[in-house]
Amino acid sequence: MAARASGPDKPEGSNAGLLREYLAYLRVEKGLRPLSCEAYERDLLQFSEYLEGQGTTLTGAAQAQVAGFLEHLAKHGVESRSAARKLSCLRGFYRWLLLDKRIRRDPTLNMESPAAWKVLPKSLAVSEVDVMLERAGTAAEAPQADAIALRDHAILELLYAAGLRASELTDLNVADLSLDAGRALVRGKGDKERIVPLGRASVEALEAYLKNGRPALEKRPTSRLFLSARGRGLSRGWVWRLVKQSDRDASPHMLRHSCATHMVERGADLRTVQTLLGHADIATTQVYTHLALGRLKAVHRAHHPRAKRANA
Predict the structure, then answer these.
(1) Residues near 255 by Cβ (< 8 Å), separated by ≥ 6?
(2) Closest CA to 166 of 250, 253, 274, 259
(3) What are the structural domains of the chain?
(4) pLDDT per residue over 63-91, tens digit each?
(5) Helix (H) or strand (E) holding 269
(6) What does 164-200 look like in DSSP terms, one character per residue?
(7) With the CA atoms of 167, 37, 33 and 259 taken in that order, what torsion angle do they form, in degrees rounded to the nearest 10?
(8) Which amino acids are annotated catalytic?
(9) Kindly report the CA angle at 201 between 236 and 180, in degrees rounded to 5?
């Protein structure tokens, strides 16, 4: 860890220097990816600027300043999910300071998180996903189908089947697939690995791509699974554009939410969904409880003999 300050609760000479140390810790010791580190940096800089207006520093902040920061976010229209993410960022930061004996008290301790679950993630209906995948499948099965059509079909099937993040999909290597076993090795946030099941439809699409699509795209030896027309690995932005082309209202993240939502609606338990999506905390997965409860209420109203209102 970084060198300790001369004493707890004494303001550092520079918030910027402290943030550099913490971000280096996230990159080197925690193994977070550049995009995650950038998100942490933005949130911490925003809090640091708020504290400067309050006449204090990051190491001098008290619980009142953290609460005031959350109120400040709410007044400026920041959604509860975003505020909850920022509080989570602050918790990690102050836990680091506490363990390194930079502070005596954690100002985020026992702070109630904004009710992020109230803003439910958007998902597609099963019928909408079916239309998207059937359209891609038809293009891939056509007599004149090329490597691009086979690749795009495999990508869409995989995003929905395994609930992958766009970055997880672009990082996949050919060796990560075990199609005979119907599974794949995925590297998530913090380089944490997990095994995900693929399902028949995605396995068949991947087999077709590996046999008849990828060889035509590979210009030079590479381990990457999905390749561009020039033989290079795909970017996250490229995957987002592909999904938008398939359904202008959809996104890779929406397919991920759809995967989880449809599983919970059909009786999957939250621990299973947590493992599939690679959530570190079950609290992140619990949002899908509310989605399932909404469906349960609708089914109850439709089928229970005493659930319908008169003249409804």
Answers:
(1) 124, 129, 156, 159, 160, 163, 243
(2) 253
(3) 15-112 (1.10.150.130), 126-299 (1.10.443.10)
(4) 999 999 998 998 888 888 889 899 999 99
(5) none
(6) --HHHHHT-BGGGEETTTTEEEEE-GGG-EEEEE--H
(7) -30
(8) 165, 189, 253, 256, 279, 288
(9) 95
